[in-house]
Task: structure prediction
Amino acid sequence: MDYYQWRKKNRRRKRNLQAKKPLNYALRLLKYRVRFEDELRERLKKQGFADEEVESTINTLKKQGYLDDEKAAYLFALDEMRLKLFGPRVVRMKLKSLGVDEEIIERAIEKALEEIDFHEELKRLKGRFKDRWELRDYLYRRGFDPSLIEEILNKIDGGEE
Result:
């Protein structure tokens, strides 16, 4: 075995040993995107780590500030609302399916709604629709409440039908 084969074999062995550690695996997952506590716990268990290892890893990540459900829920809600134009109802359902606590969901959605100006976002969309009713149906399907839809439509076109 020459030097290059030996080095390649040792690198692979070293990488496998590091991948076995739950903290390294969790950090690798967090490198790609912000994750929720339940989601991370599930991924670690699926990887085959013991419950004690999983809990200690999650506690360590919380202490270091890498794992914060409140911040993750807010960022998720903001992205879904601003970039994908989903309404609060759809965002709430998505966050529930990810295992986020009800109180955290409500705070995240409220905070995201304060920052987003749907009127400006939807002014650009108005040209895609024939009339006010078509836009209203689109918004309702995207998860907006009827009262919010009316408020948005009135601000967009000054209340004209």
Remarks:
- The two ends are 80 Å apart (CA to CA).
- Residues 3-64 form a domain with the Arc Repressor Mutant, subunit A fold (CATH 1.10.10).
- Residues 18 and 104 are 34 Å apart (CA to CA).
- The chain has three domains: 3-64, 68-116, 117-160.
